[in-house]
Amino acid sequence: MREGCHTRLPVGRPRVHVCGAGGVRWHRVGRVDRKDFSDPAFVGKSIPDPGFAGDDGTADPALTAALARWSQDRAAAPEVLAALTPTRLMVPIVALLGEVEVDEHGHKHDKTSDMAVPVLEAPDGRRALPAFTSLEALARWRADARPAPVAAPQAAMVAYSEQADTLLIDPAGPVPYQLSGARLRALAENRPYLPPVHDPEVREAVRALLAAEPQVVTGLLAPSEGADGVLAVVFDPALDQPGLQAAAQRVGQAVAADPVLRVRLDRGLDLAVLPATAQLPGEPLYRR
């Protein structure tokens, strides 16, 4: 590794394109995951009261406005996340045929049926839980689905419980939106999503791993268009080339193994090894 070069640290998950904008085609998986909602009256008949009394089934105006802005300008994504966290979504519940009986005339009749949460799957195997901002958006997707209103963070938790890594909001429109990776985790934890370079937990994790590497002189975490950030590091100028390469590799391994960074980063960090004479473009995150 030469001084001043960049390398991508293998941290986080690959970014997922937004359905409707990135061309991802989602389809229902053959298996629909059954859910036990405890209340016997739920099976084939009703949905438990989620505590949204007076909900008329319309979309939250703030979320609708944020999605409309995002559809015209992808830079408005933070507005969508901010509007999404406190709102209500609808998780679809569909009837799943169970036991069938045949009458004396040879006609088949449904004897039992279950209610289930459908899960969607992309061609590459990624799984998504559909969720909807309104009854109208749900009907666009599947008219026979019943709505289970839940708080948006709870919808994210349902996605995780279904082994889905994506929450697919309004897949049939009016504005499809896809949430995954660190943003989905932030929603599930009911906290605001912060870009990694501004996230205090990310910054502290990076500072700690830089401090743990004795050959690091100083380091800076800066924004990047192609990654979650650039980790610019100046190592001990007394190191020879093999020593410099080994130190940089240890930093990369520490980033990849850090439990906080593994869940807070989607696209990883770019590692920039700078010469000792370099002027860092900002206040260092760490200085020995």
From TrEMBL:
Domain SseB protein N-terminal: 63-186
One Pfam family it belongs to: SseB
Identification of the protein by name: SseB family protein
